[in-house]
Amino acid sequence: MDLALYNTLTKTKEVFKPINENEVKIYSCGPTVYKNATIGNMRTNIFQDILRRVLKYNGYCLRHAMNITDVGHLVSDGDEGEDKMLKSAKEEKKTPMEIANYYTQLFFNDLKDLNIETPEIICKATEHIEEMLEYVKELIENGYAYETSTAIYFDVSKLDKYPILTNVDVQNQKAGARVEVDKEKKNPYDFALWIKAPKNHLMKWDSPWGESYPGWHIECSSMGQKYLGEQFDIHTGGIDLIPTHHENEIAQSKGKCGKIPARYWLHGEYLLIDGGKMSKSLGNVYLVKDIKEKGYDPIVYKLFSYSCHYRNKLNFTWEGIEAAGKSLERLRNCYQTNLKGADDLTFEDKKTLEAIEERFHQAINDDLNMPLAMSAVWEVARFEKKNIEVAKLLTKFDTVLGIKIDENNNKKQELPEDILKIVEERKIARGNKDFQKSDELRDELLKKGYTVKDTKNEMIIEKI
Ligand code: AMP
Ligand code: ZN
Known about the structure:
Layout: E1 4-7, E2 12-15, E3 23-28, H1 39-57, E4 61-68, H2 84-92, H3 96-113, E5 121-124, H4 129-141, E6 145-147, E7 151-154, H5 170-173, E8 191-196, E9 212-214, H6 216-228, E10 232-238, H7 242-257, E11 262-268, E12 271-273, H8 288-293, H9 299-305, E13 314-316, H10 318-340, H11 347-365, H12 370-381, H13 388-401, H14 409-412, H15 417-431, H16 435-447, E14 450-454, E15 459-463
């Protein structure tokens, strides 16, 4: 079955054909590790995880690289403002390295909580200074870069076309369109490849141009090339990266080897909070930690995100999380019920399940259409007959969903003390075959908002 992906480069949904038949090479722009990752950042990571899982479902092996930006990302995303790492280090009275290590660890904890797979290659910018320097030197040799008193700039006028991903008319916007910070720039859209460090700057390296540090865009170009080659299959990131970061990565690669680095460019849309932007001043910047603190399994957020296609804006509400929490519980219970189910499946039943599986595959292969894929998942979950084959199909779907469908709600769910006490009492009553007491305790649990299902080996407690 063909896999179709929307390519920002061509602005069409295209049938995916990798360069090598079996191995797909992907580069994802990773986090700038200067602050906590928000659930917005995590939406982009969930989208990238789905892409990985869908490719694997289609039989591909992956070579996926993701960078950690620990230097060079300036506050403005362009060439203006302070380095985000340095700003944060000053605010938190720590060294940039301490900041980077701390937030990198938190980032990977979040990925683990959300059951997001770690890419095969994780590369830190500060560990690739040599490669970046070589890249910049080649751009100068090829005539695409020039030195000013403050930086080495990429000369966009040397390209046959700039920009490529967006339709900005650079020529007609020249006059006064952008705030000029460096009068030595030849064109307003020229961007910094390497920045000369002011005195007392903390993160700097020796270079042919004195003590200096890399620009943000050169990091991804040189690490992408190092680990995946001059041209690879897929490049991903959030939608905000299109007009500056990804445009400039393409420019750099064309200047160095004449190639657009990736054949397919995939971008995830933004997460909104209560219909608007997440912002500190509104007090609505949420982290994975906040979801956990409200008592939800963080995977609930992942399931919540499947209610929306990755190319559409998703609106976060706590009501939405509550509903997704119930759905996760239902799906996991349904898996457990089927695992122990003893209904026979007829030939017709098997055909019906095969047809649903086909619909699931079609949905994920249609540009990762998770809302449609979820409708197939629910068809299986509502399947009348309970049988281990149904459970197996749910596990197969879970290789894409990554919601740990085989996790037992009771093991995960932390029941309040008073409920646990009643459950324990009821276990004893049942052990003593005191069914009257056992029924009374079940009613008590019901009054407190918990249903009880007795199976051969266990008692399944569910919050209503
Ligand atoms: P930042 O740490 O704000 O630079 O964000 C890192 C990356 O996470 C951005 O480049 C975006 O691609 C992504 N991102 C940030 N905020 C959101 C959001 N609200 N929804 C989805 N992705 C986001
Ligand atoms: Zn990048």
